[in-house]
Amino acid sequence: MSSNRAGSDKVEIDCLKDSTYQWWNTLIAVVPKDRVNWDFFQTEFKKKYISQRYLDKKRNEFLELKQGHRSIAQYEKEFMQLSKYSWECIPIEVVMCNQFEDGLNEDIKLLVGVLGLKEFTVMVDQTNKADELSKAKRKADFEARDTGKRPMGKSFSFPSKKLKEFHSRTSASTRLSGRDKGKQHSSSRPQVTSIVNVGSVRNNKPECQ
């Protein structure tokens, strides 16, 4: 097969057995060689062996996926599994990031949404850090209530400091990743203000029928 994944593709094709293997050999015998690649195989295999109803069901599950009670790792795993049925819905990486962000729990989305991340690996990394920060804030709030103090008494200073550190580290990592080179953020603008304005960030959900 002519593909960037030629080596691994050949191994996977060789794993086909019996009638499926015969179907594939019959198909490629009548198809121009320059069309025979991994994408072609996936498309034809789905048409042959996977019903459209099943594909539609998985696509809808992907578009409606929410983190809920899942950990970030569990959410990412299910997101990637379901995304295989919905590549046409996330044609570019920034749309994939937006879809991942849209399914996050609100407390984590609040921290990540203002960053405008466009690389999926960076998105996952910063989401994990935001999750740790959110857990620390909830713990501080609980301890403040438990000791009879006002809810803001202890939680305000601790998460505020952590929040600034989170955005400081994020700014450094995004500059190193090569995105938005040359764009300078004003150091005088409080980080907490950007969190308050998270509602103004546009939520670009993929349009997929």
TrEMBL record:
Report the superkingdom from the record: Eukaryota
Annotated ranges, domain Retrotransposon gag: 15-105
The record's annotation in InterPro entries points to: Retrotrans_gag_dom (IPR005162)
Q: Where is this region: Disordered?
A: 134-209
Basic and acidic residues compositional bias, start-end? 134-149
Locate the compositionally biased regions of type Polar residues.
185-203
Task: From the Swiss-Prot or TrEMBL record, give the protein name.
Answer: Retrotransposon gag domain-containing protein
Q: What is the lineage of its organism?
A: Eukaryota, Viridiplantae, Streptophyta, Embryophyta, Tracheophyta
**Protein's gene:** LOC107898130
